[in-house]
Amino acid sequence: MIDSHTHLFIAGYLALSKMAKAGYNGVIQCAFIPVRPTGSSTFKDLFNWIVYAEEERCGKVGLKSYPAIGIHPRCMPLSEYERCLSTVEEYLGLEKVRALGEVGLEEGSERETRLLVDQLKMAIKLDKPAIIHTPRRNKKEVTRKLVNLLKSVGISEDRVVIDHVNEEVIELIRNEGFFVGLTIQPGKLTVKRAIRIIGELDKERILVNSDVGRDESDPLAIYKLFKRLASRKIVYDNPRKFFNLS
C-alpha cells in the first residue's frame, strides 16, 4: 500500500509505526506549513525537512518516504515571492522529489491563482506530476475554476490528481480526465463513501489517501479501505505509476 497524500512530517512516530506494521510500502509527503511563511528561508528549511530528515525517520521503521514539494494556497508567503518560487523550483528539480504538491486553490483569489499557475509551469518544465488541493468551502465553484485553470496552463491530465474529491465535484473531474484523489478523513470521506464513489469510476484513474498529519485523521485509512475493497490497483499500482516510484 502507498498513501498518496500525507503530511506525516508533522505527525508523531506512532503514526509511522502503525503504518509500517500494517504493511504500507510508502507514503507521499506533501509540503504544508500551518502558518504564513515569512520568506524563502522558511520554505528551504521545510523542504529540507521533508526531503532529507523524513527519509531517515521513515526508513527506521521500514517505510519509504516520497517527497512532494510546493506552496499550498494557505501558505502564501508574506514576502520574497520570487525567491520562494525559485526555492520551489530548486527542490522540485531533485530526482528524489516525486511531485509538485500540495498546491491548488483555497478561495480562488487572484494571488492564489498566480501562485498556482507559476508552480504548474515548473511542473510542466520539470516533468513532475501535480497534487492539487480543493477546499472544503465552495468546493464546486473553486474546483470548476481549478479545472479551467489546469486546462488553460496546458498540463496533461495524466500528470494531475485533484485531491479531496467528493460527490459534489466527481462528475466535473471525471469528465475532464484528471486523476481522482479520494481522501478518507473525518469531514471528507468515510471508507463506505469512498467505496461507493470508486464503484462509479475508472479504476485506472483513482488515487486514495488519508491526509494524515496535523489534523484529525486515521493513518490506517488506506489499510481499512483495502481490507474492504481488496484492490491492489487502487492502493498500490496506481500511485506507483502516477508518481513513477521504484
Walkthrough of the structure:
This protein is of the alpha/beta class and 246 residues long. The chain has one domain (2-242): Alpha-Beta Barrel (TIM Barrel), CATH 3.20.20. The chain has nine helices and eight strands. The protein has an eight-stranded parallel beta sheet. α4 (110-126) links the parallel β4 and β5 (130-133). α2 packs parallel to α3 and α3 packs parallel to α4. It is globular. The two termini are 14 Å apart.
In CATH terms, what is the fold-level topology? TIM Barrel
Report the end-to-end length measured between terminal Cα atoms: 14 Å
Number of domains: 1
Mean pLDDT: 95
Spatial strand order of the main sheet:
1-2-3-4-5-6-7-8
- What is the CATH domain class? Alpha Beta
What is the helix tally? 9
Please state the overall shape, judged from the principal axes of the Cα atoms. globular
SSE arrangement, N to C: EHEHEHEHEHEHEHEHH
Class of secondary structure makeup = alpha/beta
Strand fraction band? Answer: 15-25%
